[in-house]
Amino acid sequence: MDYVYILREALIWIITIFWLYQILVSVCSLVKLKDKPLKVNKNHRFMAIIPAHNEEAVVGNLIESLKNQEYDKNLYDIYVIADNCTDNTAEVARKAGAIVFERFDPAHKTKGYALDWFLQQKIKEDAPYDAICIFDADNIVDKNFLKAMNKKLCQGEEVVQGYRDIKNPTDNWITAGYALFYWTMHRFYHLARYNIGLSPLLNGTGFMVSFDIIKENGGWKTVTLTEDIEFSLQRILKGKRLGWSTEAIVYDEQPTGFKQSWSQRSRWTVGHMQCMKRYTGELFNSVKEKKSLVTFDGFLYIVGTTPMLIITMLVFGINCAMYAAQSMTNIEFVLNILRYLVPTLFLPIGTAILAMTLDRKPIKPMLKGLLYYPLFMGTWVIINIKCLFKRETTWEKIEHVRNIKIAEVEEIPEKI
Q: Burial, 37: exposed, middle or buried (Cβ in 10 Å; 0-12, 13-18, 19+)?
């Protein structure tokens, strides 16, 4: 039993050091940095790209918000990739003013394939754009999005994630859970890392990439279910940090049904596992070769998902075995279990409230969501455990039905 005790203590130290590092980095979100100087002063040309699969109910609102950007209308075009659509997405998008490309390839349904198919054509055309901005069809975009991304380009940034806010945070406990999770990550993961020269990650939508980067890559070369994380890791492998913009705001619709949320989060978890399998070794080698904090932090991100879950489960199993062997008292066993349950399920409430306070988001309308937040995070832990044994890799569409316009989202702070 002495060897089991030593193993448990070693695993606990690994978990402790990992989370102390995360806390230390998160504190850097409180640092206020001076704005970077402009390297050039020009208005760049953008492609706004919207991959859409059967999104006739919502794509029009996104196009409307893009057309109303406070940016020179001659310097950006709106493209919709109607991807394997069986509804009127293409027709709705054309009527709304977008340039529509229709794609039919049932064997390759993910966003990554659609983006690569489209961008390959634009590369061959030598299209006269400086950067691309990618949005999900259910999004609506703040009027200053392109202006903020243009500023980042002028500052020398090549890949920048915008601030992904939520269209429907107060619909129910599920959408509230998503909102609290994203708000926390934005403040304590992405902003914190950007402040100290580490790399944020792409969030799936509302991000900008220099067109030169796309040309260098030969298109959009991702194959996992989480193309955003994969693209981020590809940049980090090269020692390149991503940018972050709190001024480039995009509003995203979250699923209201538990079944859809379970399916979506399962897909994200499997995508992370695919990235872990594909890139962990390469990131480790990159850390050794480049001796860069950017690649080291990227390596910690990928090992902080499934591997850290497995280590935590091992500690839990060892505690149970020691208790069964009467090597641990009842009080010691309960305290050891609480040591993991409290940070996993209840500490996120405090961090979410702190993030909302720092970002001046109203807390009162989110009180019910905060109460249910441990349930939301708990189900995510269960999803992660489930995906260790059963991984569904088929893409399933998330239904988007909330017909919310940008003007309605801008009114939400006053309403609540």
A: exposed
Question: Residues 251, 140: contact at Cβ < 8 Å?
Answer: yes
pLDDT digits (tens, 9 = 90+) for 101-149: 999 998 888 899 999 999 999 999 999 999 999 999 999 999 999 999 9
**For residue 331, with 0-12 CB atoms within 10 Å meaning exposed, 13-18 middle and 19 or more buried, which class applies?**
exposed
Backbone CA torsion sign across 258, 261, 263, 266 = negative
Q: How far apart are CA 402 and CA 58, in angstroms?
A: 7
Spatial distance between the Cα atoms of 361 and 52, rounded to a whole number of angstroms: 30
Which pLDDT score, from 0 to 100, does residue 327 have?
A: 84
Count of CB atoms within 10 A of residue 189's CB? 19
Report the C-alpha gap between 170 and 179 in whole angstroms.
Answer: 9
Give the pLDDT band of residue 413 (cuts 50, 70, 90).
very low
pLDDT digits (tens, 9 = 90+) for 374-394: 999 999 999 999 999 988 766
The pair of three-digit structure tokens given for residue 31, joined into one six-digit string: 């640092």
Cα–Cα distance for residue pair 313/319, rounded to 1 Å: 10
Q: Model-level pTM?
A: 0.91
Handedness of CA 119, 121, 124, 126 (dihedral sign): negative
- The helix, strand and coil proportions of the chain, stated in percent and rounded to the nearest 5, come to 60, 10, 30
Say how far apart CA 243 and CA 191 lie, in whole Å. Answer: 9
**Considering only CA atoms, which of 141, 164, 174, 172 is closest in space to residue 365?**
172
Task: Could you list the beta-strand ranges (E) of 45-174.
Answer: 46-52, 76-83, 99-103, 131-134, 140-141, 159-166
Question: Quick check: 157 and 212 in contact, CB under 8 A?
Answer: no
Rounded to an integer, what distance in angstroms lies between the CA atom of residue 16 and that of residue 177?
A: 26
Identify which of 246, 272, 261, 135 has the alpha carbon closest to the alpha carbon of residue 185: 246
Task: Determine the Cα–Cα distance for residues 294 and 199; give it in Å rounded to an integer.
Answer: 6
Q: Residue 356, Cβ neighbours under 10 Å: how many? A: 19
DSSP 18-73: HHHHHHHHHHGGG--PPPPPPS---PPPEEEEEEESS-TTTHHHHHHHHHT-SS-G
Torsion sign (Cα): 369, 375, 378, 382: negative
